[in-house]
Each structure stands twice: as structure tokens, then as C-alpha cells.
Amino acid sequence: MKTRVLIILIVLIGLGVGGFFVYRNIFVPEQETEETPLIVEEKPVAEEELEKEEVPKETEEATTPSKEEEEKVSEEKGKESEVEPIEDTTPTESETETPIMISDTTRTGEINSDEIWSGTIHVTGDIMVREGITLTILPGTVVEVAAFSDDQHSGVDDYTPNPWFPKDPARIGTKSTSIMIMGTLNASGTPDNKIIFTSDSNNPTTYDWDGLGISHGKLEYSIVEYARYTNFQESSDVIVANNIFRHILECCICIGHSKSISPQILNNEAYNCGHEVIDYAGGSSLIKGNYFHLGDRSLQPDPNRGGVGIVVYQNAYPVIEQNVLKDHSVGVYFNEDLLNEEEEGKKVILRNNRMENNRVNTDIDSGYPAKAIVMENNHANVVIEGGYPAKAIVTEKNITGYIRDCSFRVGENVPVSAKITYDNTVVSTSDDGYFSITVEGDPELLIAAEGYHDYTETPSRMVNNAFYLIPDDVYQDLYSVVWEEQIYNPNNWMRKWTRQPEIIIAKEEGSNGQVDTVVSALSGDVFNKMTGGLYSSENITILDELPEELYETKNRDGKIIIYFANEMIDGGVVAIGGSAHSTDDGDGNISFGELTWKPSDNFNKYNVFHELVHAITTGGHINYKASIVSEVYSTPNSEPTEADYKFLNCIYNSPLKRAN
């Protein structure tokens, strides 16, 4: 009797296990995806054999037990508690699930099971890959992210202006899509078949979508573009290798702002990174074999700000080696700000890097502990803002470049034979103006040549790898215009346009004849010659009235506005014969120019050129000879003199804020 009960019990358990799998295969619905069914693995043979073993052979024959068998069962009476429980061999859900194949479709929202992406994936809203979940992206996949849109509306809107980058657009998280990988990303393209993360816009900007955040995994052979950032903040088990990061608003690679982490950054290329390529706040990453360069910054809201290679905060300790950093405002900037705790005994290692044509190669905040930096064999010039002697952290460097005449158009590169003095060492240039000199840090060099005004400048402020000397006959003009005390130029520094300005003429209260005079003055190549051959006046917008939005300072950036009224745009008095001025961004890059005449003024082309000088440079006057910048001489319809072009060329060949 007991044997039969035991047999029945075993049969019921076997039927239960089998029934569970029957239930799963019949009643559990497959997870729906667009056009792509859930792929479920076939049950392994080993599991089928296990179920067969769990059902004894006796159940198939159902024979009557013998007397010996009954006596054996009787002997086991009272020992049921000693019998081990039957092991549950039912596979768990994670053991039976396989990744969902996603291809050529849209995706948005949370991802709660493993997925594999291929083809073109159109991301229409915030993606959140949960912890423990793996997102695999196959080579050649294009992830197109909706520009200025988020159907999840799950982000945070932040209208707080960035004090360092005031022209950056506000971060509207509810209308900007992000891809956040809290689980694991397995995105490995190939050299010939890269993975691409991009915007779906036909006219993308550097902030079309919010960004890509990766907590675990790897990103290899991919292109990431047109986002605000790429973020690595949660863990150190991330490999970032052989990628291209470009056209990013903030940091192309942001690391360790919430805690110290150490992802590996290897063999990547990055350019047109708005704020900086790498913003490193905490951890000990290996940053090796990368090529970081400035690139075309025309897509940035403010092309003249940012553009740093690597920013290293206090208490971050990366090893930075065998990288190329080229054309940046600063190659490596050591920021005194603190976001993480100090790790005793650790140092930043900066070695065997090549620095090329950066305005400053290495810059160290005065509050940054320079003793925490080890520099070895970098082609770099180091600026120390105070606190530590340069000899404590730098070795001698060889500086090469050219000496040229500034009075010729930009790019003509007329050489000057000169002598360069540094620390009691004097070197002479070759006939083509080439020089080579060994220095420590970024010292002032005295450059002297016959027929030219002596010039003292630091190597980091060379322009196009050259120092430009001012001829003696041009120097007095520049002194009058730029450096002598000017009522309308309290800063007394050399400013210039560093991009093509947009020229707008508004008739307002003036006449068609006045507008025609301005157009006629700008129709030739004089504007191009006045800006060193860099910019043109070919495209002019003519309006009857100045749009209301241009009365707001923030909307005038990049424009030269010419109009006729009794007051200037900001309410200033218009002088007889016209008034004009320029403003800059604080670094000498002109951001706005204005020319205004009273409707009652009778003026000619000469007056246009005279006022134009104020809009394309600092804005003083020469008071002693015939010139468009002279207040004492005027010939109707006269054009700039050769002397005018020479001093304007010197301004456009010089570094910003050039000192006397």
C-alpha cells in the first residue's frame, strides 16, 4: 500500500514539472516587439533526460509489488523525516530568456530585458536600461535620436545659465532625449563597420539630444555626435576605445562627477567638443593613445570659448600618456575645484604626450597642488598662475616658430630677420624668419629687428606658429588707435573679429539714398582688405526697420548693425557725422559692431569707412595725417589709405589683447 502511495506521489511530481513547461509554452505570451518575435531557446537535451529520470520506469508498467518489496517498504516506516527533499530542477526565468532582437524600428522608455539592436533604431524618447540588463548593439547599427524631442517627457528642465558658457542653450530635459545604460552596454563595432549614435535632424546642432550615459560594459569603434555630452559616472568597468566623438556641446567624455571611477579611454579621436574633450573629476583612468584636436567649431553657440583638451580636477589621478592634443585653447588644464576626496600618495601622470599648436599647452590653477603632478617628456609649455615654481614641475622645452611682418594681409607670411632674447641667451632667425630656442615654461621673449618695434611676448601666444612684428612707421598709428587712452575704449586692448560677421542695414528713419551710400561703400573688396583678407561684405541684409529682438543684447551676437536714427541701439547719443563702436566677449573676440547716423546727416563713402573702423577693431582715431581714422581730414568717397590697411593688417595678424 505504501509503495503505491509513494509511486503515485512521484508520478504527480513528474506531471507537475512537465505541466509547468506545458503551461509556459501554451499560456505565457511572448513579449511583443515591432516586427521581431521573441527568440526562445529550445529546451536543452539534458533537461529532457532529467525529466525522464524523475519518472520511474515502474509507472509505465504499474506492476503489483512483490512480498519482498512490501517488506522493504515496511522497514522504512518512521524514517520519512530522513528522506531528502526532491530537488527542484525547474529552470529560472533568466535561464530560459534570450535577448530580444530589435531591428529597423523605434525604441523608447525602459528596457527590462536583454536586447540586441541592429539596422536603424529610431530613439524617440528617453531610454533607460535597468541594472542587470544587457543592451548589445551590433556593428553597423545606426541609432538615430529624435532632435529636440522626448516622448517620455522624463527629464529635468534646467534654465540656470552656465556662468562659464553663458551662450549655451538651456537644458530642457523634457524635450531632449537621453540614452542611459544603468545595466551593461555591449557596443562593439568594427573599423569598417562602426556603430553610429547621431541626431535625426537634417540640420543638426551640438545639442540635438541630451546624451549617452554608460555605467558598465564597452563602447568600441563607434561615432557619437550632436549630443550635449557622453557620460561615464557609475563604475570603472567600462572600456572606451577606438571611437570618434564630435560636435558635442559640453564634454565629449565626462568622468567621475558623482564619484571616483576609472574607465579606460584608449585610442579615440575627439574634436569640436564645446567645453572640453575630457572633463575628469575623480578616479585613476588610463587615458592613452588618443587624438584630441579642436576641429571646426562653427556649430558651437560660442566658438570662441571652451575648446580645452583635458580638464583634471583636484583629487583626480589619471595617467595621461602617448596622446596628441592639438589646436586647443589649453591642452591640459588642472582645475583647483574639488568634487571627490583626496587619495593619499596618488599623483596625476602626464608623460610622453605631444602638444601641437595649443594656445597654452598646460595650465595649472593657483590653488591646484602642483606637487601632485608628474610631468615627463611632454612637448608642452606650462603656465603657472602662482604658488609653485615652474622648475618644480617642468623640464626644458624646445620652441620653434617664425618671425613675420604684421602689416601684410593674413597668410602672406612676409619673413623678418630678428634676434630673440631669453634668460641671457640670444638666438638669430634664419633668412626665412625661422627660429629655435630652448626655454622653461612659457616665458616672455624679447624679439627685436631693425626697422620694427621691439616686441615682448610668450610662446603660447604665437599666432599660426609665428610672432608678428610691427614696422616702426605703422607703430604710431596702432598706438593712437589701440593703446593710448581712449574714452570709448577703457580696456585699451586689441580686439578683432574672429569669424565672419553678419551685416544688417536698417533704414529706420533714414532715406533710400543713405542706404544706397552704405551699400555702395560695402560693394567692393574694401571690407575684406580692412579685415586682413579674412572676411567679406558680400551678403548684406537690408531692412526697413530693425527687428525688436535685435534691441536685446543676446540677439546681436555675430552681427554688424548699420542704421539711421537719433539714438544708438542702447540709447546712446549719435554724434554729428555718425557714431560707431564694437564690443567683445572679454577675451578680445568682437561679438557685435554698430554704426549709426542721424537721418539728417549728409555723408559719403568716406564716412562709412571711417565709422567701420570702430566696428572691426578697438576704435580710436589718428589725428595727425590723412586717413579714414583721422578726425581732421575727409575727402568725399575716399577709401582707406595704404597706412590704414597696414595697421589693420597688424591687428588681424596679432594675438587677441596684444599688449603695447
Radius of gyration, in Å, reads: 36 Å
Unreliable stretches (pLDDT < 50, length at least 5) are 1-64, 70-96, 380-395
What percentage of amino acids are in beta strands?
Answer: 25-35%
* Whole-number mean pLDDT: 80
What summary fits the major beta sheet?
28 strands, parallel
- Individual helix count: 10
3D structure, described in words:
This protein is an alpha/beta fold and 660 residues long. Among the domains are: 2-77, no CATH class; 99-249, no CATH class; 399-469, Immunoglobulin-like; 502-653, Collagenase (Catalytic Domain) (3-Layer(aba) Sandwich), CATH 3.40.390.10. 16% of the residues lie in helices and 32% in strands. The protein is built from 10 helices and 42 strands. It has a 28-stranded parallel beta sheet that branches. The chain has a 5-stranded mixed beta sheet with strand order 39-38-40-42-41, with helices on one face. A 4-stranded antiparallel beta sheet has the order 33-32-35-36, with no helix packed on it. A hairpin with a 6-residue loop joins strand 35 and strand 36.
